TrEMBL record, chain B:
Name of protein: ABC transporter ATP-binding protein
Keyword Nucleotide-binding: yes
Signal peptide: none
InterPro entries: AAA+_ATPase, ABC_transporter-like_ATP-bd, ABC_Transporter_VariousFunc, P-loop_NTPase
Record keywords: ATP-binding, Nucleotide-binding, Transport
Gene Ontology molecular-function annotations: ATP binding
Taxonomic lineage from the root: Bacteria, Pseudomonadati, Pseudomonadota, Gammaproteobacteria, Lysobacterales
ABC transporter domain: residues covered: 5-230
Keyword Acyltransferase tagged: no
Length: 319, 285
């Protein structure tokens, strides 16, 4: 267990840039853009004598809010916090994708594999530590960064409002930062399981390729898909092409993007009214994706791919 | 004591060439074995088999374990330095020490830090900022702090300057090696290891062509230097090799009685590199 902890820590050391700095910088840039937007709005507004962002209608905030208005304000602020996490999670998707693709390849290419293999570390623990680092540790850091960015953004707008004499500080209590954090962190295990087919496939390519793992990982499934489409066109075989793209290619390549399960068909049942839009992010409804057999088939396939990656890791050397 | 390594009928084929061809040998504890051979002779394949990094045919027993099946356990007792500069480029000195300290049960952190204190390495230095010589110093400090029974070195000083090379072998001898440890080393810089070796193995085209301890090598092989006028007489004794130096001929003999050679001219012990060249004649032809 101690060894496993250090294996994960090693991944963090090596990929501090992707795991920590990428979300931090994304959040920072996002805040900076918002700040520039506010200042720009203020300056242009002052020049033309009207207020872009904060017109008089906001003065409705002065009176005591009804319960409905409070709920709306709270939801609005929650959406703001989710949206920063969303942007960071897109970045995270790219980070995890390329992390997995390089995880078992880069050290073979630069031959540092020979150093790691000189230590009494099992290949199973090595590969699983990479899975944990990519799909539990990295999302965790991203969520923290996302929520902190979201809170910073709320504060930014509140401060901007207060320059106009609008006290919005009391509104902040209607936001649900803890619920947002619980929802986001709570969905990380779901993410790790949902991403299994992709982490398995990418790590397998990473362990297998003697060069250019990206080509193998991305081009191979696409070529197979095009071949299937071609057969369908010829009318000789009818193998469901759409099924292949959606349930195979997307799952083994794009499942590393957090929230990609939201597109899954099981959510069609969730009512789509605007006031319930956020419900889909609640843990209960998020985890309902597990009701679909395809979720479990994907996870099992992912584990099989991981087992193959571990076996390859054992026998592939630096040549 | 039991042999540290015993190999019987070791074989490994790559696409069309045999890297190891039915090789058998034993290595006893407390020895420093030089595994010497030309490029592509199968040295690295043999070491990889010993370290469980590659599959092979035949039987191989390393410290009582099968490297194919019990690799994790084996690596607690075995260390290796494969080539210079295999340390990951992103790692810092402090991270490398921390990581090995927490994952290797036989690592002595104090010992490692004492070795590092003798170098110019600082905890925050990254491998990518180091010279080749410094990387080897770090790797050696890590390895020497591990109480392993077998140390495998594959070209550990390739590309280093002479100061680092001398220091490398000196540290190994003075601070690491003892009668409970065994070292296997492959290198092309034969002159630098020849005085520290206790055993010599020559490998050529996947076969062991010489396997002897250094005393036996001294008894078996001899060089005799004679003037041109007696060269024909010496050639009749079927020398292994012949070369000319300053108008005289030097002949290398395998298993010819010393008294017989002393009657012909000045006899001396051949260097390992001369022996190597003579044995490997025609390898690349």
């Amino acid at each position: 267990m101690k060894t496993f902890y250090w294996l994960v820590k090693r991944e963090f050391w090596e990929h501090r840039g992707g795991f920590l700095w990428a979300p931090v910088i994304t959040g920072g840039v996002f805040l900076l853009l918002n700040l520039m937007g506010i200042i720009g709005g203020e300056v242009i507004g002052a020049q033309h004598g009207f207020h872009f962002l904060f017109n008089d209608r906001i003065h409705i905030l002065d009176h005591a809010l009804t319960a409905e208005e409070a709920a709306k304000a709270g939801a609005f602020m929650d959406v703001m916090m989710y949206s920063t996490s969303f942007i960071i999670s897109v970045v995270l998707g790219f980070v995890v994708f390329f992390y997995c693709l390089g995880a078992l390849y880069d050290d073979r290419r630069d031959r540092s594999l020979l150093f790691w293999k000189s230590l009494p570390l099992s290949d199973t623990a090595t590969v699983l530590a990479k899975v944990v680092a990519g799909t539990l540790l990295a999302p965790f850091i991203a969520v923290i960064c996302g929520v902190l960015t979201g809170i910073a953004m709320l504060l930014l707008f509140t401060v901007a409002l207060s320059f106009h004499g609008i006290g919005a500080w009391h509104l902040l209590v209607y936001a649900h930062p803890f619920q947002v954090i619980v929802n986001l962190i709570g969905s990380i295990p779901l993410y790790a399981m949902w991403a299994l087919p992709a982490t398995g496939w990418l790590l397998l390519c990473s362990a297998w390729a003697r060069s250019k793992p990206f080509l193998w990982a991305a081009v191979l499934p696409v070529v197979v898909g095009v071949m299937l489409g071609w057969f369908n066109l010829m009318g000789t075989h009818s193998v469901g092409g759409g099924w292949y793209w959606k349930d195979v290619v997307c799952r083994i390549l794009l499942s590393v993007f957090p929230g990609s399960w939201l597109g899954a068909s099981s959510y069609q049942s969730v009512s789509s009214g605007a006031e319930h839009a956020l419900d889909v992010l609640d843990l209960g409804s998020a985890y309902s994706v597990m009701a679909a057999p395809s979720f479990w088939i994907g996870a099992i396939a992912g584990l099989a791919l991981l087992a193959a990656a571990i076996w390859l890791r054992r026998w592939r050397d630096d040549t | 004591m039991n042999a540290v390594i015993s190999a019987r009928g070791l074989g490994k084929r790559y696409k069309n060439a045999a890297a190891l061809d039915n090789v058998s040998f034993e290595i006893q504890p407390g020895r420093i074995v030089g595994l010497i051979g030309p490029n592509g002779a199968g040295k690295t394949t043999a070491l990889k088999a010993i370290l469980g990094l590659t599959d092979f045919q035949g039987e191989l027993d390393v410290l009582g374990l099968d490297p194919r099946k019990q690799r994790g356990k084996l690596m607690e007792q075995v260390c290796f330095i494969a080539d210079v500069a295999v340390l990951p480029r992103w790692i810092r000195v402090s991270e490398a020490v921390d990581f090995v300290a927490h994952t290797h049960p036989r690592f002595d952190r104090k010992k490692c830090e004492a070795f590092l204190a003798r170098t110019k390495l600082t905890p925050n230095l990254r491998v990518k900022q180091m010279s080749k010589g410094m990387i080897v110093q770090l790797h050696l400090a890590l390895v020497m702090a591990i109480d392993a029974r077998l140390l495998v070195l594959d070209e550990p000083t390739l590309g280093l300057d002479i100061l680092y090379r001398k220091q490398f072998y000196q540290s190994l001898l003075e601070d690491y090696f003892d009668e409970n440890k065994t070292i296997i080393v492959t290198t092309h810089q034969v002159e630098e290891v020849e005085h520290i070796l206790t055993d010599l193995m020559f490998i050529r085209d996947g076969k062991i062509v010489l396997d002897a301890d250094m005393d036996a090598v001294g008894e078996r092989f001899a060089e005799v230097m004679v003037g041109a006028e007696r060269a024909a007489e010496v050639r009749a004794l079927k020398p292994l090799d012949e070369r000319q130096v300053f108008g005289k001929s030097i002949f290398l003999f395998d298993g010819v009685a010393r008294a017989q050679l002393e009657a012909l001219g000045e006899v001396r012990r051949p260097s390992v590199s001369d022996l190597f060249v003579a044995t490997m004649k025609g390898t690349y032809a």
